[in-house]
Amino acid sequence: MLHFGWFVGHGFGVQGWGTPGYALGYDWKKPAIYQDAVRAFERSGLDLFIIEDSLTVPDTYGGTAQVSLAHASFAPKHDPLALVPFLFSATEHLGIVPTVSASFYPPFTAARLLATLQHFSNGQLGWNVVTSGSDLAAQNYGLDQQIEHDTRYEKAEEFVDVVRRLWRSWEPDAVLEDVDAGVFADYTKVHAIHHWGEFFKVRGPLNTAPLPEEPVLVQAGASPRGKAFAGGHADVAIALARGADGMKAYRDSIREEAANAGRNPDDVKVLFVLKPTVTGSAAEAEELKEQRKELTQRDIDSQLNSISYLSVIDFKEFDLDEPLPELRTNSNQGTLEHFVRAAPPGSTLRQILQARSGGAGDSIVGTAGQVADYLQETAEYVGGDGFLFSGFVDPVTVHGVLDRLTPELRHRGLLRSSYGDGGLRANLLDF
Predict the structure, then answer these.
(1) Against a cut of 0.85, is the pTM above it?
(2) What is the 8-class DSSP label of residue 113?
(3) Mean pLDDT, to the nearest integer, of 70-74?
């Protein structure tokens, strides 16, 4: 049995824009489209729903925001934390995981918000901790550019430590609610943390109620420093990797980092991001793969706009029919490497885009049986732990994947048919 989730890569934005699922009775500015999606995820036995976030209107590609706004790519979007209570009201078991930036959130604010949301849930909350790499986002928070890559992870380490210390600033038995004695809480069991570190200075204690269970921490670390952070802290590692060999190497490295940090490697679930398209027949799948290799200008602009923003490299400067030069970034290093390696070394930019669009790498096109074969065989080779389906949450996308794939996965015993009563953390540790 495997763990499955859904990752919405454009955050709380315009869902389904440019697809047949856009505006099918939904106002994208309202939460109903997300509520219906999470109900479908829970019926299908997924473990969690992760909501990406970003903090800018990207204009790296070509030096303007034209493509970002024409394609509703990364913008506009609302803050995912405000969406969370609406999703709790539509579900009982599905993990809801908003993104929190360790680069820009004050740890006290993050700790208080997340603690409040966890109290409002059935133990369903997770937090996707990111180290924002965008210079544009940094400029929205008073900086000229983002700080150096590995230093961002040092800051994130301190951020997570402070948040957790704030959550633990109330001892578990601090709240007495003793009406006869007139004592609500024992002041000797509520403590300031007096943290004074390299990046943060926080007195504490937190002024919310003590948590019965801390939210599940999710993290996507692909660089060596990022993998060390994920292995040391994450309950779930979001992974991008090429091929079964790449997936196995990544999972092995995360488990090694967890062991080095004194943790049980089985407590870190590595979920690989995959964009599935489930067709009614094998012939339809082959036809669709060929169609996707015929890139439109929209396809080109959309992919290059995305990688330009994530890498802070303007890909409009490169010739589509020439091999890419060696590229380096202070931003999302793993994402850049994943993009470049979609096609063999020496491939042109156009060939990389065709490989990504044609069902290779982090996408797959096939019948329910073919997709399930891939998931099962890959997971057996890699050793676990599961997959994150990536895509919009409009009904055409969600039901196009889950209505056909869920019965096949359950028939093979790969997908849970029920949840326990322990919340997201317990569900992740079921197997």
Answers:
(1) yes
(2) H
(3) 88
Inter-axis angle of helices 349-357 and 282-293, to 10 degrees?
Answer: 160
Do 163 and 214 touch, CB atoms closer than 8 A?
no
Angle at which helix 349-357 crosses helix 333-340, to 10 degrees, equals 90
Reading the block at residue 43, the tokens are 């019926």
Amino acid, single-letter form, for residue 248: K
SS3 239: strand
3-state secondary structure (DSSP) of residue 197: coil
Eight-state DSSP code of residue 260: H
The pLDDT tens digits for 50-61 are: 999 989 999 999
Neighbours of 329 (CB within 10 A): 15
Chain-centroid distance of CA 155 in Å reads 20
Find tokens 């509703």 and name the residue: 72
* Closest of 329, 301, 341, 324 to residue 134, by C-alpha: 329
State the burial class of residue 348 (Cβ atoms within 10 Å of its Cβ: 0-12, 13-18, 19+): middle
Helix, strand, coil % over all residues of the chain, rounded to 5: 45, 15, 40
Tokens linked to 92: 């009982």
Distance, in Å, from the CA atom of 216 to the CA atom of 42, rounded to the nearest integer, reads: 18
Instruction: Single out the residue of 321, 310, 316, 311 nearest to residue 346, CA to CA.
Output: 321
Closest CA to 68 of 301, 331, 300: 301
Structure tokens at 9: 């890569």
Write out pLDDT tens, residues 309-322: 888 899 999 999 99
- Closest CA relative to residue 171, chosen from 134, 141, 144, 209: 209
DSSP per residue over 41-66, as a string? HHHTT--EEEE----S----GGGSSH
Cα(48)–Cα(299) distance, integer angstroms = 29
Backbone φ and ψ of 365, nearest 5°: -120, 130
Q: What is the pLDDT of residues 133-147, one digit of tens each?
A: 888 889 999 999 888
Strand locations in 12-171 (E) = 48-51, 95-101, 126-130
For 360-404, strand residue ranges (E) read 363-367, 386-390
